[in-house]
Structure formats: structure tokens, C-alpha cells
Amino acid sequence: MATIKQKISPFLWFDNQASEAAKFYCSLFNNSKVIQDTPMVVTFELEGQKFMALNGGQQFKFTEAISLFVDCEDQKEVDHFWNKLIADGGEESMCGWLKDKYGLSWQIIPRTLMELMGDKDQAKAQRVAQAMFKMRKIDVQKLKDAYHG
User: Fold this and answer.
1) Quick one: the chain helix, strand, coil %, rounded to 5?
2) Is the pTM of this model over 0.85?
3) C-alpha–C-alpha distance, residues 18 and 46, integer Å
4) End-to-end CA distance of the chain, in Å?
5) Distances from the Cα of 108 to the Cαs of 39, 59, 68, 85, 89, in angstroms?
6) How far is CA 94 from the centre of its chain?
7) Which of 4, 67, 124, 134 has its CA 20 to 30 A from that of 116?
8) In angstroms, rounded to a whole number, what is the distance separating the alpha carbons of residues 18 and 15?
9) d(CA 1, CA 103)
10) Model confidence over 116-148: pLDDT tens digits?
């Protein structure tokens, strides 16, 4: 069986914390590891997705124009990733978005949200969307309550 090589990888620009960030992210996700750690570039893998991180200096900063989407199985996973990523200087935003302590934006989204918002009954989907718009961290039970009216 041939191994499929990932052709495209996200490349993240850090001031000088690429190694620290890579190790932090690997500590949060199963099946994750630092592949190579050099003074300039760190290559790491999160759940099978390869990333590269550069110690590039202060010239560029992360913006919300790009975020990493985490597909969470349940509220327990949402809570785990949310709490770890906002710790030590992270920042909550709205609708399941946050910035970690390095300024990188993440979407911590339970699978239930996507399922309920994709319902063919537009009234149910709209109630779920309206409930989500009021949340910072997504609360699965509140989404379900909104869905059922």
C-alpha cells in the first residue's frame, strides 16, 4: 500500500514561539507529534494533518481571516479544547471562535451544531442559528433546546 503524501500544508508565522506552539498544540490532540524542530522551522502533525511553523519575527500577525476548525464529537471535547486553548492568555470570541495565546484563531465546533443547522426544517435550523449567535463557547444542550423549540 502506498503512503499518500500531503501536498499542501498550513504554514504558520510566529514571532519566535514556533517550537513552543507546536508542542502545545501536540499536547492537545491525540495522534499528534513534532516531526522536526529547527531554530527557524518546526514541522508537526495534528490528527494526521501536517503543519509547518516559522520563527519569522514580529513583521506579521495572525488575523481572524484564517482559523483552524476543530470538529468536536460532543460537549466534553468542546470543553476540553476550548478551555485549553483560551488558557494562559487566550481570548474568547463569539459563535465558537477563540484566539489562543499565540493569536491563532480556532473554531471549536460540536458536530451537533452542523447537523442541527443543516436540518431541512428551516424554522428549526434558524432557531439553532439564533441560539448559536448568543454563545461564545458552544453549548450543545442549548442548541438542542432551541432546535426542539
Assistant:
1) 35, 25, 40
2) yes
3) 14
4) 50
5) 30, 28, 8, 10, 17
6) 13
7) 67
8) 8
9) 40
10) 999 999 999 999 999 999 999 999 999 999 999
